[in-house]
Specification:
Structural class: alpha/beta
Number of strands: 5
Order of helices and strands: EEHEEHEH
Mean pLDDT: 82
Radius of gyration: 16 Å
Largest sheet: 5 strands, mixed
Shape: globular
Distance between the termini: 23 Å
Strand content: 15-25%
Length: 128
């Protein structure tokens, strides 16, 4: 999802067997603002899921939600490469926070694997 005239659009988000939401964002420039974007993607994806499945968030029955897993593929050259980044840690360090989201970071991958191929492809497109 990216911002387009007030709306958001995710690079890639999908359901797998109605159990998981994977939200994947390709990022060539390092910014912790990705955490804000993915939380908005997740909220929009849940909203769409609830509408599509006909669930009532105002009713007394607990809605069923798929478990989210959020990944960012980082294609830049930053030396520090954390395994995960956290909204609460980045934006509210040392404070109690009622909201958090953890993003799993994926880097170049192994030579020839699908992640490496994707990173190579995105770098090629950026350098054209």
């Amino acid at each position: 999802m990216s911002w387009k005239k007030g709306g958001i659009f995710n690079d890639l988000g999908f359901m797998l067997k109605e159990k998981l939401i994977f939200l994947i964002e390709a990022q060539s420039t390092w910014t912790v603002n990705i955490l804000v974007r993915v939380i908005l993607y997740l909220a929009k994806s849940y909203q769409d899921y609830i509408i599509r499945t006909g669930q009532d968030i105002y009713g007394g029955k607990k809605v069923k939600l798929p478990k989210p897993e959020i990944y960012v593929i980082y294609t830049g050259s930053r030396k520090a490469r954390p395994e995960t980044i956290s909204l609460a840690e980045e934006f509210f360090p040392g404070e109690e926070c009622c909201l958090d989201v953890t993003v799993h970071m994926i880097y170049d991958g192994e030579k020839g694997d699908i992640i490496n191929q994707y990173v190579t492809f995105t770098k090629y497109l950026m350098n054209r």
